[in-house]
Specification:
The protein is of the alpha/beta class and about 325 residues long. It has two domains: about 5-145, 3-Layer(aba) Sandwich (Rossmann fold), CATH 3.40.50; about 155-315, 2-Layer Sandwich (Alpha-Beta Plaits), CATH 3.30.70. It is about 50% helix and about 20% strand. It contains eleven helices and eleven strands. The protein has helices spanning about 5-10, 25-35, 50-60, 75-85, 100-110, 120-145, 155-175, 190-195, 195-215, 240-255, 285-315; strands spanning about 15-20, 40-45, 65, 70, 75, 90-95, 115, 175-185, 220-225, 230-235, 265-275. The strands form three sheets. A five-stranded parallel beta sheet has the order 2-1-3-6-7, sandwiched between helices. Strands 9-10-8-11 form a four-stranded antiparallel beta sheet, with helices on both faces. Helix 3 (about 50-60) packs parallel to helix 4 (about 75-85). Residues about 5-10 have low confidence and may be disordered.
Length: about 325
Amino acid sequence: MADPCSLAGHGGLSPLKILLIEDSIADAQLLRLLLHADPHVCVTTATRLAKGLAHLRRDHYDLVLLDLSLPDAPGVEAVHRVTYAAREVPIVALSAAQDEELAIAALREGAQDWLVKSEIDRALLRRVVRYACERHRLMAALQSLALMDTLTGLYNRRGFLIIAEEQFKLARRTGHSLGLAFVDLDGMKRINDELGHEFGDRALVATARILKSTFRASDVIARLGGDEFVVLLVAASQTVSHRIRKRLLQALAKHNRIPGSVPVSLSAGFAHFNALTSKHRTLEEVMMEADQAMYIEKQSHHESRTVQERRAREDA
């Protein structure tokens, strides 16, 4: 059978891909019927939150219609978990009855809108879906202006702290672990002094590119300022730092083999947050631990370069 999403996009207009997470077969059928009145809407249905999260991990969706009475995640817990899995996707919460407190709680947790299922008709549903997508897009655009580093395209310090604090809150609620990496571009002052600031900017952009190729799309990468970078590893175990360090060294070596590239050397330090064993540790404490680990590696790099330079002078 042909993919309904590909059929929805036939004719040149990209389909609006909606993930409906709803355990009631009757309610799901009604919502699908109302949504399918628009030929440019594609609906995927999941009867449990776990199945919906699996869909979000495998594919991109433009919006999630989320029932708040799911057996495996009742109430705003469902909003927490969808937000954690796909913070870039807007959510419209669905309820079987009027519940103002639950509605406000869902909106505070990140839902774009709220619908009572018994009050939904075709026009209302279409309007809410379109407005939620547009509102989310505008909010993301406005936030990016204040939260992004213009040189590298990564998050800036403010953007990182806002997102990382939210991820720490979610980790405490869900029991997920987080990793944090501090990365420093070695010899930035020397690059600027000997090659010029244009080369310094190129080295920073190259560092951002190396980090993007090393870490996952779900991880939060930021330039804190100057030559300092930080990465929050979402849902990462303590053993992941060794694998990440190996991938970082491989990406670094690959960049430095590119003809004409500005040679880059990086120092990295890692820290870990376990929500089950260290729930009360703060973001600042974890950042400080990673920063200290990075400083130790940076000193080791500096001592190694000093020895190499001394030997070079002696050989000359």
